[in-house]
């Protein structure tokens, strides 16, 4: 098992300037490399405090690449439905080159109605757009003179530059949240799986589905299933001390996250059957409940070192 | 007058790996800062050796920002017609933050048919798309809750994050090539002007048009017209020595450039009346003729130091 840092800005102009934010996360990234962490992960969002300070994880990771030499750079996640595959294939390959082959590419489906509305992308065809964009990006990374004809984009004879540095292409991870079929599908496609744990039993069952499907379809390929789990974790001498320090940050994160999901109050989408009213559900969370969901075998994700290690053992067994 | 370095990759997989290319241009950028140059400029292109190694100048400049502290970062140019204004406003503001306010944003209209075809953007409405995208980006940088309703994009109540670091926003430059009205228009809009000199008399007349229009519309604002000129320049002890060293590079640049403009052989566009057959014109150029166009008051753009200084004086007077 490896450990990395996972960033998703929850700052707003009122709480922190962009210059201060980037100075801090670049310093954290350099420190993470010094301390032997495996990766820096950064995600893509727009327009709201929730993730909005990082609309381009690739811009950020390019800066990290320039200040580090070993740590891997992880997009967690890029939202491919908002991008043309020729751009995605080219931009990722560029950061793969700048980092000398240290890029991992995580993709997620996107789920915030105001992002879809702003970019004029319909939510209801999102699953199909998601899969065909990723499939085309991989084709562009690995083949030349690629043509595509889809309802979402179409082009002929494209050979993207630069070509990827990693062979055959940067590792690909897809995120899944709840739908069991998503976990199976990611295994069938042979990609890595990204999860945000919300209950260890649920994860174990889902991760099992993924591994079964992966091995059934790619067991002979030499590739191995890989699971990346992101969760809030603060290590202190005691659980109480950890909670005292970490809870205000978790509370602020929840506040900013809930604000972004208010756009689900009056939105419906057949591709997102359980999302309407999402913020009403999130409003029931507290740092404590959030914590027990994140690391249920410990009292709190902000755990003492021993509780922390105990929390992590089950994950280790399942990844 | 200030001097910077202007990059446009002319490498292909057969001639140079992306890792080597980026290692070199990042080292050049650090050196440029050490030597007191004013800026590093990098441009956006796709799919061909001509510029194709840098589909995202912002990704590159973010890496430069992370390795430097004073030199300014210049997109020369971003092609706004291939981007959603919410992304452009957000991504540029992000690099503005990472660099602590060192970003200059140059925009160009794009002119390569295969780029338009691949992204499904029609060339014939390009001028209108160009202007409305830039106008909207500036609005997004300077206002909150911005709505836009155009044939090219439409959205409501968007407040982009991060907000720009420079006030009121990063300086904007637009490129112009030949059409006299373009120079007037850029002056009217009050932006900086980017040119690629192709004859000093033509430049002087065009720059004059720009300055007149700028002063007529913005003379009272305190803003000043600014001209950025990019041209190949190699300094050696003698002109002959400079030509001996630089000509092979200019020849290779011409070869790669001509290859990219072959797509104009059978293309026509009312927005680009004089471009059909462009590569046939470029094929008549040699490093020598290219040189005389770039720096006509010297024998060669690859000039001795004294010839070089002489070449630059007229530009100084006109900028």
Structural class of chain A: alpha/beta
Mean pLDDT across the residues of chain A is 89
Low-confidence stretches of chain A: 292-300, 312-319
The biggest sheet of chain A, with number of strands, parallel, antiparallel or mixed sense and barrel status, is: 7 strands, parallel
At CATH level 3, the topology of the largest domain in chain A is TIM Barrel
Number of domains of chain A: 2
Using the CA coordinates, give the radius of gyration of chain A: 19 Å
Assembly status: homodimer
Can you walk through the features of this model?
Two copies of one chain form a homodimer. In chain A, the strands form two sheets. A seven-stranded parallel beta sheet of chain A has the order 1-2-3-4-7-8-9. Chain A has helices at 18-34, 57-67, 85-98, 113-119, 126-142, 180-189, 200-218, 239-261, 278-282, 287-294, 305-318; strands at 5-7, 39-42, 72-78, 103-107, 146-149, 154-158, 172-175, 192-195, 227-229. The first copy, chain A, starts with a strand and ends with a helix. The model of chain A is unreliable at 292-300 and 312-319 (pLDDT under 50). Chain A has two domains: 5-175, TIM Barrel (Alpha-Beta Barrel); 233-319, no CATH class. The longest helix of chain A has 23 residues, at 239-261. In chain A, 49% of the residues are buried. Helix content of chain A is 45%, strand content 12%. Chain A is globular. Chain A is built from eleven helices and nine strands. Chain A is an alpha/beta fold. Chains A and B meet through α1, α2, α3, α4 and β6 of A and α1, α2, α3, α4 and β6 of B. Chains A, B: It holds the Pfam family Bac_luciferase.
């Amino acid at each position: 098992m490896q450990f990395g840092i996972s960033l998703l800005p929850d700052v707003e102009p009122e709480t922190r300037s962009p210059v201060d934010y980037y100075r801090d996360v670049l310093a954290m990234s350099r420190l993470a490399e010094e301390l032997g962490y495996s990766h820096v992960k950064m995600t893509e969002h727009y327009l709201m405090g929730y993730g909005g300070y990082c609309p381009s994880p690739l811009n950020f990771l390019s800066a990290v690449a320039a200040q580090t030499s070993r740590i891997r750079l992880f997009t967690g996640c890029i939202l491919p439905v908002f991008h043309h595959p020729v751009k995605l294939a080219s931009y990722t390959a560029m950061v793969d080159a700048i980092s000398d082959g240290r890029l991992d590419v995580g993709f997620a489906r996107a789920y915030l109605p105001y992002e879809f509305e702003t970019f004029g992308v319909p939510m209801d065809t999102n699953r199909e757009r998601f899969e065909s964009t990723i499939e085309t990006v991989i084709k562009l990374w690995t083949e030349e003179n690629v043509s595509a004809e889809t309802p979402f984009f179409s082009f002929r004879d494209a050979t993207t530059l630069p070509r990827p540095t990693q062979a055959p292409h940067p590792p690909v991870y897809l995120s899944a949240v709840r739908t069991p079929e998503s976990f199976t599908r990611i295994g069938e496609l042979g990609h890595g799986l990204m999860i945000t744990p919300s209950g260890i039993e649920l994860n174990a069952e889902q991760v099992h589905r993924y591994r079964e499907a992966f091995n059934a379809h790619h067991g002979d390929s030499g590739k191995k299933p890989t699971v990346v789990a992101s969760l809030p974790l603060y290590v202190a001498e005691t659980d109480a001390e950890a909670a005292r320090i970490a809870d205000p940050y978790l509370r602020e994160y929840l506040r900013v996250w809930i604000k972004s999901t208010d756009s689900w109050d009056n939105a419906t989408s057949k591709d997102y059957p359980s999302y309407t009213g999402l913020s009403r559900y999130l409003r029931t969370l507290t740092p404590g409940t959030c914590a027990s969901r994140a690391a249920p075998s410990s009292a709190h994700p902000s755990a003492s070192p021993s509780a922390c290690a105990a929390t992590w053992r089950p994950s280790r067994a399942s990844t």
